[in-house]
Structure formats: C-alpha cells, structure tokens
Specification:
By secondary structure, the chain is an alpha/beta fold. The chain has helices at about 15-25, 80-90, 220, and strands spanning about 10, 30-35, 50, 65-70, 95, 95-100, 105, 115, 120-125, 130, 135, 140, 145, 150-155, 160, 165, 170, 175, 180-185, 190, 195, 205, 210-215.
C-alpha cells in the first residue's frame, strides 16, 4: 500500500487559491491528476487540467487518491469547511501541504489533516493546528499558539505567542494579534486590524485597535451551498 504522500491528488476548485496550491504540489513533486470545478476552465498549471465537476470523484476509490482543498477564504471560511466535511464524510482524505519556503519548527508542532502552509509562512515551536487550517503566504504564528479546525490566517497576518484561535475563524491580511489573545469560534478579524483584547465568538472586529463592528450569524459563515 502506498503512503499518503505517494498517492496522486485531485484539487477541488479552479480559482486563484487552487493555482497557488497547484504550484506548491508541483514543487513538492506530487502527482496531480487534475482539478474539479463546476465549469470547464483553463489548466491551473502545465499538466494540471480540468477533470469535470466534483461528480468525477465517484470514479476514484478514496483509498487510491488524496484531495486538496482548493477553495480560498475571503472573510467567510464556510465554503472551505463544507467541502472538507462533505468529502471526509465520504471517506476521502485531504493532503496536507507545506510550501518549500515555509518555515516550520521541528519542536512540538502539531499539524492537522489537510493543513496548508504557504510560501513564507512561519510556524514557531509549540504551535497546534487543527484540521483544514490555511496558513497563507508570509503569515506568522509565534510560539504556543493554537488554531482551530477550518480557520484561515491570511497573507501577512501576525499572531503573537500564546494566542488561542477557535474554529472557523478568519484572520484578515496584515492583521496583528498581540500575545495571549483568545479568538472565539467563527469570528472574523478584518484586514489590517490590531487585536489587543479577547474576541467573542461570531464577532466581526475591525480597526486599530480592533473594535467589535457587528455580531455574525451562521448564515454569514456559510458562504455557498453544500457541494453535491
């Protein structure tokens, strides 16, 4: 039986985030069978062509392929979560990706299933990532932070030591969390914000310093409909 990193992969999604992941996979030497999207699209990268919509997965045994979550996150992490939970519920596995230019400590770091660590990201000792977590380009997670399932730390965000980030959280591009902050499940931190106090669940925070702007609800977090 092949180990997980020897299995071919299929990328779910054909947008900008999927293109970034295609590049990451090729740099890592993974065999990519192609990508899925609702409608025909140009190749994501040389040799990575459109396979059809997600129904093509029925032709691949879950034991013989890994999936890659190519759905990005701008504000809501709901669509990424829906894709991950739908296909793991059908016994498929999601590949964890690490760009060669990501800096990941070898000391007590835990990476969940399907985690994605992109170019220039930095993960310090003692960090724990849940499943389906996206650490985007140049994002920094300092020592002993925890990031819950399905959360996204966007490009250039800085999370100082000892922060506890819940599930389904979006930390916007260039945002900064000072040390020891707790972010509740489903919160959204707007791009460029500086967070100096704990954040309640399902709250939108923006500004310098960050202030609550409004309460969120489950509909805010859903994004799109559940995949077929």
């Amino acid at each position: 039986m092949k180990s997980a990193d020897q299995l071919p992969v299929i990328i779910l999604g054909g947008g900008g985030h999927a293109r970034v992941l295609a590049d990451c996979l090729q740099l890592a030497g993974r065999r990519v069978l192609g990508f899925t999207a609702p409608e025909r699209q140009p190749d994501l990268a040389p040799g990575i062509a459109w396979l059809g919509d997600d129904t093509v997965l029925a032709g691949h045994d879950p034991a013989d392929v890994e999936l890659v979550n190519g759905i990005g996150s701008v504000g809501s992490t709901g669509k990424r979560r829906q894709v991950f939970t739908h296909w793991t519920g059908k016994a498929y596995r999601f590949a964890s990706l690490r760009h060669p230019a990501a800096l990941i400590s070898g000391l007590a770091v835990t990476l969940g299933h399907g985690s994605q660590l992109l170019a220039g990201s930095q993960v310090a000792p003692g960090v724990r990532l849940g499943d389906n977590v996206l650490i985007n380009s140049r994002a920094v997670l300092e020592h002993d932070c925890r990031v819950g399932d399905h959360s996204h730390i966007a490009t250039g965000a800085i999370v100082c030591g000892g922060c506890d980030i819940g599930s389904g959280v979006h930390i916007g591009a260039g945002a900064t969390l000072i040390q020891g902050i707790t972010i509740g499940n489903g919160a959204i931190i707007a791009a460029g914000s500086v967070v100096t106090t704990n954040v309640e669940p399902l709250t939108l925070i923006a500004g310098v310093p960050g202030r609550p702007k409004r309460a969120l609800n489950e509909q805010d977090l859903e994004g799109h409909q559940r995949p077929a």
